[in-house]
Design brief:
Oligomer: single chain
CATH superfamily of the largest domain: Alanine racemase
Distance between the termini: 29 Å
Structural class: alpha/beta
Order of helices and strands: HEHEHEHEHEHEHEHEHEHEEHEEEEEEHH
Helix content: 25-40%
Largest sheet: 9 strands, mixed
Shape: globular
Length: about 425
């Protein structure tokens, strides 16, 4: 285990720490599942978009799944080739579509009829042929948290089979659209492969029909959503799942594209936090720490559970407590009813499995400063994002001053806490 006490002393807390060697192992494990069949792994940047982390995956051969053009820019800046970048998402703006077509990325995942017509119009104006894929909604329940379920007809994502078929035919006839892929993604943190297999079988039939009509499909995009262990979850057998997917897709002779995020980085990261106080409200025990929901919001919005352990505990005796932050919300907690030893000010806690949807979903709520990020490679620690300062927090704000106010520089220059 890394020497987290030394890291806390060197970089202070709260602090995100990512084990790049573990990311390499996860990527290699997934890549080996496809051995012998043509495939492309496109890391989902939304899970963690730190440039150094993306660069690490780029060096391993990864592509990128992006849901904003700024994520596309991050991927390009980090060294991912344009021909390995796809652009997904239900709300692409005209400017984003134009920028993506000019960047000549692999393809755009289209999610509605209106979007398809806009992509077509932009491509016509630019005098280019837009490579596209349609995200087809298979109406399959991923059996995950409703906020991260995306494959049902009640979700905002994707296009139903009938409409997709019609839009594919339109794209095939259009001089400005080139339908090269077919896509589904039914959710995140999926622990049962059955819904994924069911979805793949449904999409296969649509793809078979389209290929018979002469559409130039090249990619069968199975999305991502592979679950990981946070506390006691048991993920499905990835190798067996990919073997089944290959058997489904192989008769179509299409390349398989997958978009993992959490699977690659989730268990490779931790959030290191210091204890500020212990508090008893009657019989209710609280451990108050310097991290909060603005640093890791998953417990607050998903009721997600992260294992939390004390570093160098002074006692083997434990009791139930809530681990909470300083934000002015009762929903500000990192864990509820977890067993921890008695804690003192300055003790360190490790929040595990925080590599995905931690920093990428962080905020400045309560004007809190976002933490630093550190990478571990072969036991060596490297700062990959410095701790935010108060000056950076307010640098884009415009303060209306009256003639008697001249203390802005004094305030800006005050020491961060």
């Amino acid at each position: 285990m890394a020497n987290y006490a030394q890291l806390a002393q060197k970089y202070h807390t709260p602090l995100f720490v990512y084990n790049f060697d573990a990311i390499t192992q996860s990527y290699t494990t997934l890549k080996e599942c496809f051995e012998g069949y043509k495939s492309l792994i496109c890391y989902a940047l939304k899970a963690n978009s730190n440039l150094s982390l993306i660069r690490h995956l780029a060096n391993l051969g990864s592509g990128a799944d992006c849901v904003s053009f700024h994520e596309v820019r991050r991927a390009l800046l980090s060294g991912i080739p344009k021909y390995k970048i796809i652009f997904s998402g239900v709300g692409k703006t005209l400017h984003e579509i134009e920028s993506a077509l000019k960047a000549d990325i692999l393809f755009l995942n289209v999610e509605s009829e209106s979007e398809l017509f806009l992509v077509e119009a932009v491509a016509k104006d630019l005098g280019v042929e837009a490579r596209i894929s349609l995200r087809v909604n298979p109406n399959v329940d991923a059996k995950t948290h409703p906020y991260i379920s995306t494959g049902l007809s009640s979700n905002k994502f994707g296009i139903n089979h009938e409409e997709a078929f019609k839009l594919y035919l339109h794209a095939h006839k259009s001089p400005n659209l080139l339908p090269v892929g077919i896509h589904f993604h039914i959710g995140s943190q999926i622990l049962d492969s059955a819904p994924l297999i069911e979805s793949a079988l449904k999409i296969k039939e649509l793809a078979r029909g389209l290929l018979a009509l002469g559409l130039p499909l090249k990619f069968f995009d199975i999305g991502g959503g592979y679950g990981i262990t946070y506390t006691d979850e048991v993920p499905f057998n990835l190798q067996e799942y990919i073997k089944n997917i290959i058997n489904i897709v192989k008769p179509l002779d299409l390349s398989i594209l997958t978009e993992p995020g959490r699977f690659l980085v989730g268990n490779a990261g931790i959030l290191l936090t210091s204890v500020l106080y212990e508090k008893l409200n009657g019989t209710k025990r609280f451990v108050i720490v310097d991290a909060a929901m603005n640093d890791l919001i998953r417990p607050s919005i998903y009721k997600a559970k992260h294992e939390i352990v004390a570093l160098n505990p002074k006692s083997k005796e434990v009791s139930k407590c809530d681990v909470v932050g300083a934000i002015c919300e009762s929903g500000d907690y990192l864990a509820k009813d977890v067993n921890l030893p008695d804690c003192e000010s300055g003790d360190l806690l490790i929040v595990k499995s925080a590599g995905a949807y931690g920093y990428s979903m962080s905020s400045n709520y309560n004007s809190r400063l976002r933490p630093a990020e550190v990478a571990l490679t072969n036991g060596k620690d490297t700062l990959i994002r410095h701790r935010e300062s108060f000056e950076e927090l307010i640098e884009d704000e415009l303060l209306l001053l009256d003639e008697n106010t001249d203390k802005v520089d004094d305030i800006k220059g005050s020491k961060d806490v």
